[in-house]
């Protein structure tokens, strides 16, 4: 064979092989499959390690999702700026003038009014009303006005749903069931909350958020019991079931749990639901989701913060202060792993140091840590609990109670509640924070009662003054708040002089550094 022919053949073979390799690469055949974490079975703490790895993965994904959202926001912002540039200058000045004329408050005010309207619509349309309560503060998530509005209608039935029972100790759930059961039928509930898109069939593809399967997420308790009760109420005709409650108590989650699909938007962000939504559970039960109830401004400050759907974002320190006032110091020190503190500012200072949150020049970033602290309290993970009061003057009279109980199969309810409580994994009392605030919250149902909100000076300063007066024990009692809730104003003598022994007790620079 001539040399030229041999080289020609060799070249052809090389080209052919290159082509084959290229195609294989395109198909992804050469790629090594991703290995799962393999831990030998005899390794100690295997389950813990796997759980930690899974949590880490979830966190990474969450971060990626957040970054993506931020990027999208930035792009949208840039686009807006470019669009504005393109518009003629005349239009710009018109828009500016309009903006100047429009005050900021009416937007919030109108939206609050519309929330009110939507809640009223739900109460009017529904045959059965479920008032959803947060098991961590059931009394605080009850609304006197809404309950009265329902009880005034003779044909409507009112049931309480004690949701999030996985976040409080078991004996506390039992106590609350007993306490609330004296007034109205109450059902213990735990929603299914986890959305595991990764485990769904077709993982990796884009999943339509409206049909994410929740059945594989965390287990729910009380759903079948609630359906049984509702079916017993609709023997002759189909019924509409309205869900009411303050923000973040889990109304939308409850619907998703009953439906086993994500049909309503859920989030730890308050006021996610803005309008009435109806969802058919089956051919006899239609559920109406409502926006959160509007909180009346005459509630104690902590209740106002815990239950309101909207907040001014700049008040983190004041809000954190309000919450800390009602918590047991020992438990807070244990939960957040901080040493003894005198007031909320000192606690936030210590927490910022503990979590490594510093501003420029090495100063602890108290604002940032206050925001994180509040997010935890508003989220669905922190375990805190309130204790039912020894006696409570009820706004429901005995005839209304007995009428409501007659309409519902209470024996079935009791047995189902016992079954649900047995199944749930509750936190131990030592891991949860006792929260000393138990008030029924006043709400607003009449939109004409909503008054324009005035900008008030931050109450942090005032409260810090109070803190200093109260000293170490954080002695503000619920009674004092009751007084403020009922409108009785007490005049406190506030001394603006430094306490005499203050400097001797504690030198911040020396003791702290
Ligand atoms: N741990 C736990 N978290 C829950 C439970 N139910 C709801 N959540 C969480 O509570 C948060 C609020 O739930 P939503 O269903 O959006 O509450 P909502 O009452 O509809 O809130 P709004 O839209 O503000 O009215 C979400 O982060 C849920 O995951 C529960 O039973 N247990």
Automatic annotation (TrEMBL):
Stretch list, region Disordered: 1-109, 455-513
Where is this protein localized, as stated in its record? Nucleus, Nucleolus
- CP-type G domain ranges (all copies): 116-296
Q: Which UniProt keywords apply?
A: Coiled coil, GTP-binding, Nucleotide-binding, Nucleus
Q: Does the keyword Zinc-finger apply?
A: no
Q: Which PROSITE patterns match?
A: G_CP
The residue ranges flagged as biased composition, category Acidic residues, are 458-470, 502-513
The GO terms this record gives for MF are: GTP binding
Residue spans of biased composition, Basic residues class: 1-34
Predominantly, its location class is nucleus
Task: Return the GO cellular component terms, semicolon-separated.
Answer: nucleolus
Biased composition (Basic and acidic residues) is annotated at: 44-97
Its biological purpose is as follows: May play a role in regulating cellular proliferation.
* PANTHER family given in the database record: GTP-BINDING PROTEIN-RELATED (PTHR11089), GUANINE NUCLEOTIDE-BINDING PROTEIN-LIKE 3 (PTHR11089:SF11)
UniProt protein name: Guanine nucleotide-binding protein-like 3
């Amino acid at each position: 064979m001539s040399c030229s022919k041999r080289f020609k053949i060799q070249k052809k073979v090389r080209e052919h092989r290159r082509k084959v390799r290229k195609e294989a690469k395109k198909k992804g055949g050469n790629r090594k499959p991703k290995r799962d974490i393999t831990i030998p079975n005899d390794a100690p703490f295997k389950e813990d390690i796997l759980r930690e790895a899974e949590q880490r993965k979830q966190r990474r994904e969450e971060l990626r999702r957040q970054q993506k959202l931020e990027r999208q926001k930035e792009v949208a912002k840039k686009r807006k700026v470019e669009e504005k540039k393109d518009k003629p200058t005349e239009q710009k000045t018109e828009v500016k003038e309009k903006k100047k004329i429009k005050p900021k408050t009416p937007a919030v005010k109108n939206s609050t009014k519309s929330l009110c309207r939507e809640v009223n619509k739900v109460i009017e349309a529904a045959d059965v009303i479920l008032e959803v309560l947060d098991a961590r503060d059931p009394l605080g998530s009850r609304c006197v006005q809404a309950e009265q509005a329902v009880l005034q209608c003779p044909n409507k039935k009112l049931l309480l749903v004690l949701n999030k029972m996985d976040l409080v100790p078991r004996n506390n759930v039992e106590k609350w069931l007993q306490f609330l059961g004296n007034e109205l039928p109450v059902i213990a509930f735990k929603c299914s909350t986890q959305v595991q898109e990764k485990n769904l069939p077709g993982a990796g593809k884009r999943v339509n958020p409206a049909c994410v399967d929740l059945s594989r997420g965390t287990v729910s308790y009380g759903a079948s019991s609630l359906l049984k009760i509702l079916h017993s109420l609709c023997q002759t005709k189909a019924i509409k079931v309205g869900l009411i409650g303050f923000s973040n108590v889990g109304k939308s989650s409850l619907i998703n749990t009953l439906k086993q699909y994500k049909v309503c938007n859920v989030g730890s962000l308050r006021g996610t639901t803005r309008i009435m939504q109806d969802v058919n559970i089956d051919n006899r039960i239609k559920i109406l989701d409502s926006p959160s109830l509007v909180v009346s401004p005459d509630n104690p400050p902590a209740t106002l913060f815990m239950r309101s759907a909207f907040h001014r974002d700049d008040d983190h320190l004041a809000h954190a202060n309000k919450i800390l006032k009602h918590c047991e110091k020992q438990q807070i020190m244990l939960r957040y792993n901080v040493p003894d503190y005198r007031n909320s500012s000192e606690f936030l200072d210590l927490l910022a140091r503990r979590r490594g949150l510093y501003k420029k020049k090495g100063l602890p970033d108290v604002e940032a840590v206050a925001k994180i602290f509040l997010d935890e309290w508003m989220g669905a993970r922190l375990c805190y609990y309130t204790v039912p009061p020894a006696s409570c003057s009820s706004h429901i009279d005995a005839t209304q109670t007995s009428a409501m109980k007659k309409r519902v199969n209470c024996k079935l309810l009791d047995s189902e509640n016992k079954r649900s409580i047995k199944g749930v994994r509750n936190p131990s009392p030592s891991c949860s924070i006792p929260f000393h605030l138990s008030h029924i919250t006043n709400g607003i149902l009449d939109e004409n009662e909503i008054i324009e909100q005035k900008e008030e000076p931050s109450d942090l300063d005032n409260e810090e003054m109070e803190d200093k007066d109260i000293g170490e024990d954080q002695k503000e009692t619920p009674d004092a708040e009751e007084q403020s809730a009922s409108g009785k104003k007490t005049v406190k003598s506030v001394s603006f002089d430094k306490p005499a022994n203050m400097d001797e007790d504690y030198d911040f620079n020396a003791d702290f550094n």
